[in-house]
UniProtKB/TrEMBL annotation:
It comes from Streptomyces vietnamensis. It comes from the Bacteria. SMART domains: HATPase_c. PANTHER family: NITRATE/NITRITE SENSOR PROTEIN NARX-RELATED, SENSORY TRANSDUCTION HISTIDINE KINASE. This is Histidine kinase. Residues 334-426 form the Histidine kinase domain.
Amino acid sequence: MTTSTVTSVEERRRQFFRWAPYALLVVATVLALAAADRITPRPLAVLVALLTATLALQLWWTRRERAFAASEPPAPDTPGVVSIPGAPGPASVTYFVLRTALGFALTWVSPFYAVFACVGYFDAVSLLPPRPAYARAGLLAVALMLGGSQSGGLPPRSAVQWAAFGGLFALNAALALGLAHLGGREIERAATLARTNARLEQALTENAALQAQLLVQAREAGVADERRRLAAEIHDTIAQGLTGVIAQLQVVSMTTDPEVARVHLGRAADLARHSLGEARRSVQNLSPVALEHDTLPEALKKTVAAWTERTGITARFTVTGTEHPLHDEIAATLLRIAQEALANAERHSGAARAGVTLSYMGDEITLDVRDDGHGFDPAAVPARSRAGGFGLDGMRARAERLAGTVTVETAPGEGTAVCARVPLGTP
């Protein structure tokens, strides 16, 4: 329910319990006076006195209830609970007890006043203290008045009337207590539901906070991943290109042959232009330039040939399995791993020969880069990588983004083999 709906329902309840006793008292009086010559043996003065006392009590309670309602905000609406301002308390208990006593006296004068007395069925739970015994006592008192009225008036005048009174009282008491019990169960269920809703709202609030935290962490992880990507791309493009340019310039500085110098200067210029283009593509998160017009096998073949020409190391490229199109990210990852592995072989291995094999193996693709260099101790690599390198760690990070792996088999004096495996369906 919305707040406005709850307020409207609560106000209608107040209006009913404010004015219903007056209306029922008037109806009962009209019926009693209409049948006074047949079933009302009590003096009229007694009836007038009782009506005056009842009306005074009702006016006092109405003024008190309205004053309390004006000074207090409406209580939250709970299904099955009648909200009466200021109740239960000493004043409400006094009002219920006096009204019940006057109702009993009026029913004694005329059984038609049970019409007025039945209002106790509706507000006994709200006016009396919350202990079940008090509510049951109030409901039994009302059932007593209704049983007497329905059996022909109080006191019963014959054995038959006494029997009818006993049966009707039992019936009214059973109905009142049964309905009160069901109402209490409804109230308990409503209270349980309210507590569950409160816990659910708390959980939703906590989940919203957790979701916001996860979003922040995801953004931070995305930023960190992009930084790692750019660092790896810079390492694989600019750093390798500059290394090649420096190597070509060193040859130029040591030669006296103008033709040799011209060839190496041309290579240095080509490497510089290629590295610049790769750097721009890395910033724009584009595929390597070698894959712009070629498939991965073609790009690897050209990369191996260019590497052989530049380094003088004999290298051969081989493709096994049935070739088929690859996702751009898989092709770019394997090309970068091959370039890094060849760059490592050039800088560190002292190899005379190298081999690159691309194998299509059903649901995965494998890249192997081998050399016959002097190898190295793998246990020494992590410390160097943590110091700031992007070599082996960079290759592994690239493969892991695609749920792949990179393994290195090497030992001092035994060469090096780098194997990258990537599932074909990962991207």
